[in-house]
Design a protein that fits this description.
With 153 residues, the chain is mainly alpha-helical. 71% of the residues lie in helices and 0% in strands. The chain is built from 6 helices and no strands. The chain is globular.
Length: 153
Amino acid sequence: MNAKKIISYIQPLFRIILGLLLLVAGYLKIQDNSALFETVAYITWVPTVLQSFVIDTLPWIEVLVGGFLITGLFKKWVIPAGALIYAGFFAFAIYGLGSGMEGDCGCFGDVDDSNLLSMVLGSTFGWSMIIRNGIFVSMAGFLFLKPGRETDQ
C-alpha cells in the first residue's frame, strides 16, 4: 500500500474523529456552559463583549463545524475552520498552562462522573492538554494533504 492510498484512508477517519469531538464538546457546552464561562472570565485582558461572544457562539460553532466535518459537506471551508478551532484550543492550552490557570477548561462541558469524554480526555490545564490538543492540530493538518492520483508506470 502506498502513501497516497494510506492518506486517502486516514483522512476520512481523522475528519470523523475531529468532527465527533467538536460535535460532542459543543453539545455538552450547550447543555451547561458554566465551566466555559468561568474559564473565559479568567482571561481579564479580553473585553467583556468578546468574552460574551465566545461563550454564546463557540458551542454552536463547534456543533456546526463538527457536523459538517462528519458528513464531509463543505470541506473546502469546514476543514480550515476546524483546523483554526483546534489551533485556537492548542494555543489556549499553552496560554492556560503558562498563565497558571487551574481546574477545568470547560472543553467538554461541566466535568462530572457522567461525562465520559471529559474523564477520558481530561479538561484540566497541563501538559496532557497541550499534548492532546497538539495531536488534534496534527490530525487537522493531515486533512490538508492532497493524496493525488495514481499514475501508471
